Amino acid sequence: MKKIAVVGAGIIGSCTAWSLLKRGYQVELFDKDAPMAHTSQSSSKLLHGGLRYLETGQFKLVHKALQARQFWLEQAPHLCHQLELLFPIYQGIGRPRWQIGTATKLYDVLAIGSGFPKSRWLSASETLLRNPNLSSQNLLGAYSFYDAQMDDYQLGLWVIEQIQNLGGMIHTKRPVKDLSQLPNFDAIVNATGPWVMHLRQQQAAKLAIEMDWVRGSHILVDKPLNQALMLPIPNEKRIFFVLPYHGQTMIGTTEIRQNQPESEPASDKEIAYLLESYNYYHQQQLTTQDVCKTFAGVRPLLKDAINPSNSTREWAFETVGNVLHVYGGKWTTAQIQGEMACEELLKCLN
Ligand SMILES: Cc1cc2nc3c(=O)[nH]c(=O)nc-3n(C[C@H](O)[C@H](O)[C@H](O)COP(=O)(O)OP(=O)(O)OC[C@H]3O[C@@H](n4cnc5c(N)ncnc54)[C@H](O)[C@@H]3O)c2cc1C
Fold first, then answer.
1. Which of 113, 144, 210, 311 could lock 301 by a disulfide, CB 3.0 to 4.6 Å apart?
2. DSSP letter assigned to residue 62
C-alpha cells in the first residue's frame, strides 16, 4: 500500500489526508504545532460563495463554493448552519442598489440545487425591524441572502476525527524542516498554507508560483446579535461582516499585507478601523472598551493582484519530484480542493 506524508494539519492538509484515506492510501499527517492551530481557526467562520468575488469575475469559484456549503451542512450539521445575511443599502454609500441586487440574483442562479433559500429585497422598515440598532438615516432597505456559518476550529477537529477513524496517523508538534526528514514515503503533500514556500524553496526547480501573505483581524464584542450583516466600508471598495457568533458579535475583517507567514495580533489601528466601520452604520456606538477579544490569521493567497481584496481565492498545485505543493484556497472549498489534490498526486504516483 502506498504511504503518503501530508505536511500541515490546517483544513487544506486535513481534507487532502481525508481524501487519500478514503481512497485506501496509508497516510500520516504532520503539524509543527497542532491541527487547526493557525489560519484555519482564524477565518470569518463563513461557509460562503463569496458575494464580493462576483465583482472580480470569479464565477467558477463562487459556483463551486456555493455548492460546497451543502457538503458541510450535510456532513456535520451540529457544527454549521444556514445563515441569513442582510446587505443594507444606504443612499449615496457604497455600490448602487441595482449592483447589489444583480449580484444577489446571480448568487441565487449559481446556487441552484444547493438547497439554500433565494435572496430578496427588504424595505427600510423591515430592515430596521430585523436590526433596530442600524442607523435609519438614508437607509433604502436591504438585500437578504443566505450563506452558512461554522465553528471553524471544531469543524476542523471533526475532520481530524474522520482521519483518525480511517486509520490516519496524526503527529502534532512535529515540524518538517526538511523534505529529507520523510524518506520512507512514496509521496509528500506540502499543505503548509502560509508556510508553503519554506519546503518548496528546498527544491531546485524554478519557482512557478508566488504567494502573498495577507493578515485579517476580527474583533469580538460581548453583545448578542440577531441579524448577520454585510456592509461596505465607508469610502472604500471593501466590505466587512457583523456576525452573531457564540452569543457575541464578531466584526471583521481587515486586509494587511505581511512580509512573513506568521500572524501578528490585531493592531490598535485595525481595531480602530473595524470599530469606526461598525459605528458608521449603528446607533449605539462601540469603543475599545467593548472589545473583549481579537483574533487574526494570515491568508495564503496566490499573488495575482495589486490590491489584496482583488486576489483570487482559487488554488493551484505544483508537483516537483514526489512532492505535491498546494497553494491558496479557502475553507469552504477545502473538501473539493482535497479531492483535487488527490487526483494530482495520483498522476505522480502512477
Ligand atoms: C481573516 C480570514 C478570514 C477568512 N474567512 C474565510 C471564510 O469566512 N470562509 C472561507 O471559506 N475561508 C476563509 N478564509 C480562508 C481560510 O481560512 C484559509 O484559506 C484556510 O484556513 C487555509 O488553510 P490551510 O490549511 O492552507 O492553512 P493553515 O490553517 O494555516 O494550516 C497550515 C498548517 O501547516 C502547519 N505547518 C506549517 N509549516 C509546517 C512544517 N514545516 N511542518 C509541519 N507543519 C507545518 C501549520 O502549523 C498549520 O497548522 C479566511 C482567512 C482569513 C485569514
1. 311
2. H
38 lines ligand 1 (CB under 6 A): yes
User: Does ligand 1 lie within 6 Å of residue 297's CB atom?
Assistant: yes
Per-residue pLDDT of the chain (350 residues; tens, 9 = 90+): 899 999 999 999 999 999 999 999 999 999 999 999 999 999 999 999 988 888 888 888 899 999 999 999 999 999 999 999 999 999 999 899 999 999 999 999 999 988 899 999 999 999 999 999 999 999 999 999 999 999 999 999 999 999 999 999 999 999 999 999 999 999 999 999 999 999 999 998 888 898 999 999 999 999 999 999 999 999 898 999 999 999 999 999 999 999 999 999 999 999 999 999 999 999 999 999 999 999 999 999 988 755 666 666 789 999 999 999 999 999 999 999 999 999 999 887 77
Per DSSP, 333 falls in state T
In terms of domains, do 8 and 136 share one? Answer: no
- CA of 80 from ligand 1 middle (Å) equals 18
Pocket lining: 114 vs ligand 1, CB cutoff 6 Å: no
10 lines ligand 1 (CB under 6 A): yes
> Strands 26-30 and 169-171, how do they pair?
parallel
| Residue partners of 349: CB distance under 8 A and separation at least 6 | 2, 186, 187
Give the range of the structural domain holding residue 23, as residue numbers without chain letter: 3-40+153-210+311-349
Q: How far is the CA of 68 from the centre of ligand 1 (A)?
A: 18
Q: To which H or E segment does residue 127 belong?
A: helix 124-130
Residue of 11, 43, 197, 203 with the most ligand 1 atoms within 8 Å of its CB, for mutation: 43
